[in-house]
From TrEMBL:
The chain crosses the membrane at residues 50-70, 216-237, 258-281. This is Solute carrier family 13 member 3. It comes from Stegodyphus mimosarum (African social velvet spider). Signal peptide: none annotated. One of its GO terms (cellular component) is plasma membrane. InterPro entries: SLC13A/DASS (IPR001898). Keywords: Membrane, Transmembrane, Transmembrane helix.
Length: 296
């Protein structure tokens, strides 16, 4: 008899939870029925018996089924302006990864700053795919037998750098996410909440959000960078000139393998630039935005 897989166990647990919580679903109070849906979705999110996207769509059939809201009200919440803005940002991010534009940017960054750890740490404020590509290129550069044998010191340096980069991904993601509305979903949820509860107040725009939050974001990133420098990059840690040249040679060779910029990469970069421009200058407040010009 084959042992049960983890997925089957999770599925059984979720079915059991949904049955145990049925008294809430049968309650005459809307609050109790809503609590049933929330607890059920929380269980599905934690155990993942089905894909997260499937769990995210459960409110569409369940909320009207239990008489909490109508189907039109539930579906309208899935197509609000802030969510469409978030989906647009995700679509661009997927396009960047699909055409390997993030790898080209990562290699270009490494070619510009070299293999000095202090400079590489600064690149962790970029997107997560770029950070992952930077780590991959550093590791492949240090482990390339065709150039030089791996030294114990180089292994140690790579492990320490890897730890610092993994921590910096979390730090920079949290700090950088506060800088723009699309940086993280709670920002857009806050924007939508304020527009609904305080319609008389001035609208929060992409530009006004950046003007208010970017200074604090920069300070937080600098503090995180300083902590990582002190903990993981001691002052005596230096690479020889030969090591830097060998690593640069590998990185340059890998970059050349990508060839010239393809139309796909150029188009994605152009669309990404246009998207950011439109976000910022829709209603920048300090000048007439393009939305106002089109409306007039």
């Amino acid at each position: 008899m084959k042992p049960w897989s983890a997925h089957k166990i999770k599925l059984i647990v979720c079915i059991t939870v949904s049955i145990v919580l049925l008294p809430l679903a049968a309650s005459p109070f809307k609050e109790a029925r809503c609590a049933y849906i929330i607890l059920l979705m929380s269980t599905f999110w934690m155990l993942e018996p089905v894909h997260l996207t499937v769990t995210a769509l459960l409110p569409v059939p369940l909320i009207p089924l239990f008489g909490i809201l109508s189907a039109s009200q539930v579906c309208s919440d899935y197509m609000k302006e802030v969510l469409m803005m978030f989906l647009g940002g995700l679509a661009v991010a997927v396009a960047v990864e699909h055409c390997n534009l993030h790898e080209r940017i990562a290699l270009k960054v490494l070619m510009a700053v070299g293999s000095d750890t202090k400079c590489n740490t600064a690149t962790t404020a970029m997107m997560v795919p770029i950070v992952e590509a930077v780590m991959l290129e550093l590791k492949s550069s240090l482990e390339c037998d065709a150039v030089a044998p791996i030294k114990t010191e180089s292994k140690m340096k790579h492990e320490v750098l890897r730890t610092a980069l993994l921590l910096s991904v979390a730090y920079s993601a949290n700090c950088g996410g506060t800088g723009t509305i699309t940086g993280t979903s709670p920002n857009m949820i806050l924007k939508g909440f304020l527009e609904e509860t305080h319609p008389e107040s001035s609208e929060i725009t992409y530009a006004s959000w950046m003007l208010y939050n970017v200074p604090g974001m920069i300070i937080c990133v600098f503090i995180g960078w300083t902590i990582l420098q002190l903990l993981y990059v001691p002052c005596w840690w230096k690479q020889s000139k030969d090591d830097r040249q060998r690593i640069r040679k590998i990185i340059t060779s890998r970059y050349n393998e990508l060839g010239t910029i393809t139309f796909h990469e150029g188009a994605v970069f152009f669309l990404f630039t246009v998207l950011v421009f439109l976000w910022i200058f829709r209603e920048p407040k300090f000048m007439t935005g393009w939305a106002e010009l089109l409306a007039s």
